[in-house]
Amino acid sequence: MYRHIQALQQVSRRTLSTSARRQVENKVPHKQKHFQEDNGIPIHLKGGASDAILYRATMTLTILGSAYVIYELVCAAFPKKKE
Q1: What is the pTM of this model?
Q2: Which backbone phi and psi does 19 adopt, to 5 degrees?
Q3: Where is the major localization of this protein (predicted)?
């Protein structure tokens, strides 16, 4: 039982020590500079084409959802007459 615990400790030490050695480039200053530029583009579209696509999809779904809610409210307000 003790061997299993000791082996687990060694594996956990190894993964922690090897992950700390990897250096990742800090992209935050570049992103901050890009998003703080005053170029007339709204902040929610400065990410590029993917932001524009997500924005348009969100607006389309919002409009369609609102129209459907209004339709259902009208249907509920004026129920069909039974013959």
Answers
A1: 0.57
A2: -75, -25
A3: mitochondrion
